[in-house]
Amino acid sequence: MKFRVERDVLGDAVSWVARALPTRPVVPVLSGLLLHAEGDGLQLSCFDYEVSARATVPAEVGEPGSALVPGRLLAEIARNLPVADVDVSTTADMVMLTCGSAEFALVSLSRAEYPALPEVPDVLGTVDGGLLATAAAQVVPAASRDDTLPMLTGACLEFDGPALTAAATDRYRMAVRRLPWEPAQPLARRSVLVPARTLADVARTMAPGKPVTIAVAQPARDGVRPADGLICFEGGGRRLTARLIGTEFIRYEARFPAEFAASAELPAGPFTEAVRRVSLVAERGAAVQLAFRRDVVVVEAQSEGRARAVESVPARLDGQDQVLSFNPQYLLDGLTAAPLTGSGAAAATGHPADRIRLQFSGPARPALITWLPGDRDTEPDPSGDEPAEGNGAVPVAVAASAGGDPAEPGVRPTFRYLVVPLRAAAR
After folding, report:
1. Are strands 414-419 and 423-425 parallel, antiparallel or unpaired?
2. Which of 2-6, 26-30, 92-96, 319-323 has the lowest mean pLDDT?
3. Most buried of 152, 153, 366, 415 (most Cβ within 10 A)?
4. What fold does the segment set 253-425 form as a domain?
């Protein structure tokens, strides 16, 4: 094998593929990154029986061939190469890499036990890379990192006609994003549960305006989980596959309050910055308190005996005064994600929502904060299981003003974020 490739092109591709390498491979050979040069391109890939990544980049191929090299070591080398084209060749059991005055010799790993990349299942449809990346960035922070509850570590992708919905929860907050997509053929409503980390890697990969195909093969119905129970995202010369999580997601639409007793509107930017500044004095585990009055919301936090911060933001309240307290990071995750809602250029550039609307429901339901679209006619109709009875805290709904794309009638991008208050009170 012998080829030449641009340094930055190689470094970017190696870095992306190496993210899918297992931290503790069950078999040492799975820590390898496979290089395959042929025609006018170089293919880099890895697979550990759970996740696979493949990137194809242009290269000047002198001699076609393949080699398996230590993946993380190659990624470190690629990040630190001098500015020059990279020449790679194989000799005996060594892979030689030369870039300018720098030379590296890597021991080639045995390919006898290395698995073949999984086959791509049937394509379900196509979505804009920018919209998918934005949706992933909004939803993934709400997924749990506790591996003892696999269902909560995933993101649910629901395909329903021309709409694609992503949802995730860790029991303390929930994020739901709806966006338009193009199904390959008439498709009945179906959903899959994808590892949140996979969706996060997708967000780092896909570019606005570039189509991304989504292909899914679900496990057999007899309970046996075959090798093709996976999801595949492909676009821009990159392919990422992952095993589906073999369980069903919660009926998340039923968690949204059906009615609201009060609401408040306020500027998104100033409110977000106020919460960010005030939370600087909150100790670990401490809350940020939001006190809503007729024309203002007072944001307050303190660390016992050390510091206190208070800031006011203009607001328009319709209904009774409210005082609620939240985990500051959970609150900020939703506040910073909501402005990304939109479609087309708005989503790709992170066009901000000018105002948000907070909606308060009655005390008999679990305490929630919900970001909804600016137009009430896009709210979902609650169905299925009723929300569980809570601790008497007041549910709250927050609406981010974000219009849909006129070219996409009937599928208005929306983002909703729910978070459980730490306590609620009335003054």
Report:
1. unpaired
2. 319-323
3. 415
4. DNA Polymerase III; Chain A, domain 2 (3.10.150)
Gap between the Cα atoms of 238 and 201, Å rounded: 11
How many whole angstroms from its chain centre is CA 322?
A: 32
- The model's pLDDT over 102-151, given as tens digits with 9 standing for 90+, comes to 999 999 999 888 999 888 888 999 999 989 999 999 999 999 998 888 89
Query: What is the C-alpha to C-alpha distance for residues 196 and 99, in angstroms, rounded to an integer?
Result: 37
**pLDDT per residue over 202-220, tens digit each?**
887 777 888 999 999 866 5
Query: Has this prediction a pTM greater than 0.85?
Result: no
C-alpha neighbours within 13 Å on the C-beta side of residue 310: 4
CATH architecture of 123-250: Roll (3.10)
Q: Would you say domain 2-107 falls under CATH 3.10.150.10? A: yes
- Per domain, the residue ranges of the chain are 2-107, 123-250, 253-425
- Residue at 176: amino acid letter: V
Domains 2-107 and 253-425 share a fold: yes
* Banded pLDDT at 362 (limits 50, 70, 90): low
Q: Residue 159 in contact with residue 151, Cβ under 8 Å?
A: no
